[in-house]
Amino acid sequence: MDIFYKLIKWLVFFTYFLLIANINFQVLIKRRSVPVSMSWILTIYIFPLIGISIWFFFGELYLGNREKKIANRIWSMSNKWIKDLKSCEYIFQIKNSEVARSLFQLCKHRQGISGIKSNRLKLLTNTKKTMEILIRDIYLARHNIEMVFYIWKPGGIADDVAIALIESAKRGIRCRLMLDSAGSIEFFRSPWVELMRKSGIQVVEALKLNLIRILFRRLDVRQHRKIILIDDYISYSGSMNLIDPILFKQSSGVGKWIDLMTRIEGPIATTIGIVYSCDWEIETGLKILPKLPSRNVLNNYSRNNDTSIQVIASGPGFPENMIHQALLTAIYSARNELIITTPYFVPSDDLLHAICTAAQRGVQVSIIIPLYHDSILVKWASRVFFSELLAAGVKIYQFKKGLLHSKSILVDRQLSLVGTVNLDMRSLWLNFEITLVIDDINFGHNLAFIQNQYICDSFLLDKKKWDMRSYWTQVIEKIFYFLSPLL
C-alpha cells in the first residue's frame, strides 16, 4: 500500500511539474509584454492550483479548430470580395483631414480599402429613443435584417424589438440574429428563441458555452460586437446592448446605463456587412456576403462627400492588433484636444504612455469614466493608473449619473472613434469588437457636445486629494494592478 501511495505521489508531482514546465514554455515562447508574462509566471508559482486553472481556461486557446479553419478560409474568399468592392471607385474618399490622415492610411494598408464617403450619420444618445427608431426601421425593412449583440435581455422595450422582428419575418423579411452565448444567457433561456425561430428568424448562439467546448477554446473570448444592418444601407453600431436600461442590472446600484449608438445610411453598410458575414460563417459555416453598393444608393447621399468612415473589426481571425494600433495612431495624432469615454479603463503600457505623452506635449486630455461600477476588479485595477495620468496633466472625470457605458474617442473635434471597444485587455486583445472611425467635423462637434454633457455630470478628480489617499488603498490598487494583464 505504501508503494501505491508513493507511486500516486510521484505521478501527481510529475504531472504538476510537466504542467508548470509547459505553461512556462508557452508564456515565454510567445512574445508578450513583460508585465503580462511576469503576471502569468508569478500567478502560477504563487498560487499554483489557481494559476494553472486560470491558464487552462484563459491562457492560450482562442477558437476551436473548426472555427479556426473556417476563419482562415473565409478571409481568402473575403479578399476576393474586397477586390470587387474596390471596383466601386465612386464610394471611396480620396482625401482626409490632416488629423485623420495617418489613421486612414493605416486602415487602408492593413485592411485593403480606403474610407467610405457619402454616408448620412446620426448620433443617438438615449437608449429608449434609439430602440424606438430601430423598431421603426425594422417595420420599414424591405429585404433583410441582420443583428449581432453581446447582450439581449428580455423585458421592457427589448420585447418590442423582438415583436417587430417576428412580425417582419412573418411578412417575408429575411432576418438573422446572432447573440453571444454568455452575454445573452437569459435570452436563450426565454421563450423568445422558439417564438423567433417559428416565425422564420435564424437565431445563432455565438461562441456557445458548454463543458466540451471549454476544453478546446478560451472561455472569455466573447462576441462583443453590436451591429444592426437593414436592407444593406441602414446600419447601427455603438455601445448599446439590446436591453431596457430601466430594467438592466438595477440591483447592482450603478444606476441607468448610458450608451452611444451611431445610425448610418449609406454604403458603409457594405463594409460592416462583410464583418457580419465573417462572424456568421465562423458560427454556421454559411456564407452571406453583402451586396456591392450601387451608384443609385450613392446618389442619395452625394451631398455628404466630406464624410469618410472606416470600419475596424478585431477578434480571432481578423487583422491582429488593429484596434490597438488604431487607438495609438489616433492619440498620437491629437494636436489640441483629446477626449476619451470608457467604462473599463485598464490600458496597455503603450496606450497609457501615449495618453500621458499627449498631455505633456500640450494637448488638453480628458478621460471620462463611471464613478459607480459593475466590476469591482476593473474599478480597482483602473485606479492604479490615475496618479501617473494626473501627474502628466490629464483630467479625469468620474460620471455620477449612472454607469457610463459609452466608448468614444474624439481628436481635435474632427476625428471620432465610436464602437464597442473598452480600454482594457479583453477588448484590445481578445473579443470580437468593432469600431467606426469617422472623419467628419459635424459629427465631431455633435460628439463633443455629448461628451461635454458627460463632463457636466461628473466629478473632476483632484490630484492633491488623490495623492492623500490611504496607504492600504494604494496596496489594494497595486494588487489589482498585478492582476490587470489577466483581466
UniProtKB/TrEMBL annotation:
The active site is at H224, K226, D231, H405, K407, D412. It is an enzyme of class 2 (transferase). Pfam families: PLDc_2 (PF13091). One of its GO terms (molecular function) is cardiolipin synthase activity. Its main location: membrane. It is a multi-pass membrane protein. It catalyses: 2 a 1,2-diacyl-sn-glycero-3-phospho-(1'-sn-glycerol) = a cardiolipin + glycerol. SUPFAM superfamilies: Phospholipase D/nuclease. One of its GO terms (cellular component) is plasma membrane. Its EC number is 2.7.8.-. GO terms for biological process: cardiolipin biosynthetic process. Keywords: Cell inner membrane, Cell membrane, Lipid biosynthesis, Lipid metabolism, Membrane, Phospholipid biosynthesis, Phospholipid metabolism, Repeat, Transferase, Transmembrane, Transmembrane helix. PROSITE patterns: PLD. It is found in: Cell membrane. The chain crosses the membrane at residues 7-28, 40-63. Residues 219-246, 400-427 form the PLD phosphodiesterase domain. Catalyzes the reversible phosphatidyl group transfer from one phosphatidylglycerol molecule to another to form cardiolipin (CL) (diphosphatidylglycerol) and glycerol. Belongs to the phospholipase D family. Cardiolipin synthase subfamily. ClsA sub-subfamily. This is Cardiolipin synthase A. It comes from Buchnera aphidicola (Muscaphis stroyani).
